[in-house]
From TrEMBL, chain A:
Family per record: Belongs to the GerABKC lipoprotein family.
Domain Spore germination protein N-terminal: 28-189
Cell location: Membrane
Keywords: Germination, Lipoprotein, Membrane, Palmitate, Signal
Membrane topology: Lipid-anchor
UniProt keyword annotation of Nucleotide-binding present: no
Name recorded for this polypeptide: Ger(X)C family spore germination protein
Organism: Paenibacillus haidiansis
Segments forming domain Spore germination GerAC-like C-terminal: 199-356
Pfam families from the UniProt entry: Spore_GerAC (PF05504), Spore_GerAC_N (PF25198)
PANTHER family: SPORE GERMINATION PROTEIN B3 (PTHR35789:SF1)
TrEMBL record, chain B:
Protein's name according to its UniProt entry: GerAB/ArcD/ProY family transporter
Phylogenetic classification of the source organism: Bacteria, Bacillati, Bacillota, Bacilli, Bacillales
Species: Paenibacillus haidiansis
Major subcellular site: membrane
Record family assignment: Belongs to the amino acid-polyamine-organocation (APC) superfamily. Spore germination protein (SGP) (TC 2.A.3.9) family.
Keywords, alphabetical: Germination, Membrane, Transmembrane, Transmembrane helix, Transport
Cellular localisation: Membrane
């Protein structure tokens, strides 16, 4: 009995399951859809959102930038589908660029829409871009680099892996946005001379961009941002020195019932370029050299801290370190009030390695 | 195999259950649904203490359950209840049980269907999927109680591997261990009772074993199995909670609906993305397993309520299935399309689970104890005469 009945049961089951596709009112026939990889959002003249993307992505057809002007993100998708012969889908979005004006206006409502969409991964890269992004994309599509969307995605993925520049995905941004003791940041790119270039870090208060860390200070900003990191090149332009392969370590201590904070930054690495005539023959001279570099790095770090305090931002998440085993001394508001007036002491200790090479180099001169 | 099904009756048991069957059954029953919701409901790091407290209380309950099975003097199963409580009270008891089992089954299944509907197939008709899932449950349940319970091993092995996918999150740079502070409470957090109720409900499940006949379990084995299952459940809850907390931070975690599913979506392997496409269907094995057992319980309740003989074939199961189908259709029509109503039903389920897990083990223990005292007194009085 059961063998025959099982067969019928199985057949019925398969019919129902395989027939599942025909019950649905939404189909994803591959020829009919066009997954979006890159989005650029900028503010229109009348306060609307201008949504641009490259179509078709990942297909060997003539590519172009398509722009729609709308009030909301979802409406933008709808309007885009009204003027394109495929249905655009958000499941493959990898990068979202916001124009500076858009970032100044606030990103919350846009990002909430993205977070709520189960198709969109929380790993989508976010960044702020200044300059004529659409012009840049168009120029690239006209022959220079047709696969510009993939090119940019690989660049972002590489930066994320390397960890020396600011990269942020949707999850990281949102986690910092909701954290009571930290403010979010995004990478800041600029289009200049037909190039899109990493140009520092955009600082946010809540969901609004309020300032940037320029590229010249960005490497020092990174030293303060993470507990441990590595910087392959640290140029100290004032001292005419370039340090390389620097391992950085950050330690944070609060004293005087949270009125003072001590930030110890330990650096270990090599000197890659020194000014001609720099003497490091004796240990004392080497020590002096190290001290002078430490002072110069310390000044840079202090400048960054002053800037963030002036903007009353805590992109380093220092407030997290006030929380102890059994208490949370500050609420979000209290911390936001306390941080700008906090007494910050930065102590830099630099340990140069392979200084023997430096000596022999000096000898030959 | 199939020839032994059917005529032998749904509830006949040939040999006592093994350690693994019992332990995996209890564990899957406990973690099935709450695991997905618990992290965002708790959110604050101090609630790790609540999980430990609930695990401790659950341990006491388990000792009581095991004790009930160890007493030789008390009759077990349905007949035991009828003898102690009388026919009328047992009938009410049956009806209440039937209601509880059906409600639990429906909420568990529709909750899972809703997840699939929301994340995997937004265009698929949710009720239809629920009915398909129910077909799978009946396919398992028609094999009878014994085989269904032994399916625990498949259900456990088929879903436990998912846990390993989360281990890398503990070491990822996105994990901020400072989110785990403060561990000790400064003051009584708001809604602590609600949170404890949910955690307590999350440990419920072993009380369903009380309905098993005594010859189906070896009391000693049951005790160790349940203790192991309870400890593993507590470990699972704490592990997933810590992973979610370090990844999201408590403020962001509160805003997540299904943090565990969202976490898996964060994994981006070079050859595969959207791993939730594999994970969520794998979870169906556990859902089918637990709902199949609940279906059998409902069938049992119907059979007893109808006062027919215990080997009455599979008609009660058919009736239970009909009831479930009707309820699935009703839930899909009126409850689940409205998110607030669905959330309300999930809250009611946790109240139901919390109350059954509080009342049943203690009630059975008390009844058993009274019976023994009475017997002892009678014997003692007889002896003195």
């Amino acid at each position: 009995m059961p063998a025959a009945r099982n067969k019928w049961f199985l057949l019925l089951w398969m019919l129902l399951v395989l027939g599942g596709c025909s019950f649905v009112d939404k189909s994803n026939t591959i020829e009919e859809i066009s997954p979006v990889v890159l989005l650029y959002l900028e503010e229109g003249n009348d306060g609307s959102i201008k949504l641009s993307t490259i179509i078709p992505p990942l297909k060997k057809e003539k590519k172009s930038v398509i722009t729609t002007s709308t009030d909301t993100l979802i409406e933008g998708r709808y309007l885009r589908n009204l003027k394109y012969y495929r249905e655009t889908k958000g499941g493959q979005i990898r990068m979202i660029f916001f124009s500076e004006a858009m970032a100044n206006r606030g990103l919350s409502s846009l990002l909430d829409t993205l977070v709520r969409d189960p198709e969109i991964s929380s790993r989508v890269f976010l960044s702020v871009v200044s300059g004529d992004m659409i012009g840049y994309l168009n120029r690239q599509l006209q022959g220079r680099q047709e696969e510009i969307d993939m090119y940019l995605y690989r660049m972002f993925a590489h930066y994320e892996k390397q960890g020396q520049l600011t990269t942020r995905n949707l999850h990281e941004y949102m986690a910092k946005l909701y954290s009571p003791y930290a403010d979010p940041v995004l990478p800041y790119y600029a289009v200049a001379n037909h190039e899109l270039r990493y140009s520092g870090t955009a600082l946010f208060r809540g969901d609004k961009m309020v300032g940037t860390i320029p590229l010249s200070d960005d490497v020092f900003f990174q030293m303060l941002r993470e507990n441990k990191g590595i910087q392959k090149t640290v140029p100290l332009t004032e001292a005419d020195v370039v340090l390389g392969s620097i391992k950085t370590e950050r330690n944070i201590r609060f004293t005087d019932s949270f009125r003072k904070v001590h930030i110890d930054v330990m650096l270990k690495g090599r000197v890659e370029e020194v000014p001609a005539g720099q003497k490091t023959e004796s240990p004392r001279e080497l020590q002096e050299f190290e001290r002078s570099l430490e002072r110069s790095i310390q000044e840079k770090l202090e400048k960054i801290i002053d800037r963030t305090q002036a903007l009353s931002l805590d992109p380093f998440g220092l407030g997290m370190y006030t929380v102890g085993w059994k208490e949370r001394p500050f609420t979000r508001e209290q911390w936001n009030q306390r941080w700008p007036d906090m007494d910050v002491t930065i102590h830099v200790s630099l340990k140069l390695e392979h200084t023997g090479m430096l000596d022999s180099h000096a000898d030959r001169r | 195999m199939a020839s032994r099904v059917g005529s032998a009756g749904l509830f006949s048991i040939s040999a006592p259950f093994g350690f693994l069957s019992l332990a995996f059954w209890a564990n899957r029953m406990q973690t099935l649904y709450y695991l997905l919701y618990l992290p965002s409901m708790l959110a604050e790091p101090v609630t790790i203490g609540l999980i430990l407290l609930a695990a401790g209380c659950s341990h006491l309950n388990i000792l009581m359950i095991a004790r009930c099975f160890a007493w030789k003097e008390t009759p077990g199963g349905y007949l035991g209840i009828v003898r102690t409580l009388g026919t009328a009270v047992s009938f009410l008891f049956l009806l209440a049980g039937l209601f509880a089992v059906l409600m639990k089954g429906i909420v568990l299944m529709m909750g899972y269907v809703d997840i699939v509907h929301h994340i995997l197939f937004p265009a698929l008709h949710a009720t239809l999927f629920g009915i398909l899932l129910l077909c799978a449950c009946v396919y398992l349940a028609r094999l009878g109680m014994e085989k269904t319970i032994r399916f625990a091993i498949v259900a456990f092995v088929g879903t436990i591997w998912v846990t390993f996918l989360y281990v890398p999150f503990a070491f990822s740079p996105a994990a901020e261990y400072r989110h785990l502070l403060p561990l000790l409470p400064e003051h009584m957090p708001q809604g602590i009772w609600q949170a404890f109720l949910t955690v307590w409900a999350a440990f419920s499940g072993p009380e369903y074993m009380l309905a098993l006949p005594k010859e189906a379990v070896d009391a000693k084995k049951l005790k160790t199995a349940l203790i192991a299952a309870n400890a593993f459940t507590a470990f699972e809850y704490i592990f997933f909670f810590v992973i979610c907390l370090t990844f999201y931070g408590s403020d962001y975690l509160q805003r997540q609906d299904l943090p565990i599913v969202d976490l898996i979506r964060y994994i981006q392997l070079p050859f595969a993305e959207r791993l939730e496409m594999i994970l969520i269907p794998a979870h169906a094995i556990s859902v089918v397993y637990v709902v199949a057992i609940l279906l059998l319980y409902a069938a049992g309740a119907i059979q007893c309520a109808a006062r027919s003989r215990l080997t009455a074939g599979r008609a009660p199961l058919g009736l239970a299935l009909l009831m479930m189908l009707l309820l699935t259709w009703m839930a899909g029509r009126w409850i689940w399309p409205d998110e607030w109503k669905a959330k309300q039903w999930i809250t009611w389920l946790s109240w139901l689970d919390a109350s059954t897990y509080t009342v049943l083990p203690f009630g059975f223990f008390l009844l058993g104890w009274i019976t023994i005292r009475r017997k002892w007194r009678v014997r003692h009085a007889g002896g003195s005469k």
